[in-house]
Design brief:
This protein is mainly alpha-helical. It is 71% helix and 6% strand.
Length: 189
């Protein structure tokens, strides 16, 4: 199974061949570049995909990785549901978490810390449709700022992320997140 460095090499080669094809006006080189990129996409995942009766069935190639992933999910499930409920409401939280887990499953490498950050970023991106947290619709009586501050507090104190990771999740500079988090914490007192 190819890991990320080999996949990155295939991507670089595919792009280089494609660019060379464009520069030389050679369709065969362009097609070859595209085929190399497609190959890189297929070999980069550590899972096999096939269509099943009512959806996509994902199977990890390494059964030990599956057991590790399942154990990881059990340790994170409550925390992920709490965050998802905050982001999109109780009715949508289960579906949001399940979709994030299914999408992140092929990326599992055994590194729980890195994968947790990946999952939280994915949850936020799925819940917001890719928009920044400050652009989310709010509930009754909630302002955009209230929702943003609650999210910062939740990521820092409930999810235990540091400022750098929170900044990556919400798409803001670390200094702005630090300032906004201090403002949110001051409002609690």
């Amino acid at each position: 199974m190819l890991r990320r460095p080999q996949t990155a090499f295939l991507v670089v080669v595919g792009v280089a061949v494609g660019v060379l094809g464009v520069a030389l006006d050679q369709v065969a080189l362009i097609v070859l570049g595209v085929l190399i990129l497609v190959l890189a996409a297929f070999v980069s995942v550590a899972a096999d995909f096939k269509l099943a009766g009512n959806g996509l069935e994902v199977t990890l190639r390494d059964p030990d990785l599956r057991a590790e992933f399942d154990a990881f999910v059990e340790t994170q499930r409550t925390s992920l549901y709490r965050l998802a409920t905050h982001l999109c409401g109780e009715a949508s939280a289960v579906g949001l978490v399940n979709e994030a887990l299914a999408r992140s499953f092929p990326d599992w490498s055994g590194d729980g810390v890195a994968h947790r950050l990946h999952l939280v970023c994915l949850l936020v991106r799925l819940a917001t449709g890719g928009r920044r947290i400050g652009l989310l619709p709010t509930g009754e009586g909630d302002s955009q700022e209230d929702l943003y501050h609650r999210t910062l507090l939740l990521l820092r104190h409930d999810q235990d992320f540091d400022i750098k990771h929170i900044a990556a999740i919400v798409g803001r500079p670390p200094d702005a997140v630090r300032r906004d988090l201090a403002e949110a914490e001051a409002a609690l007192v």
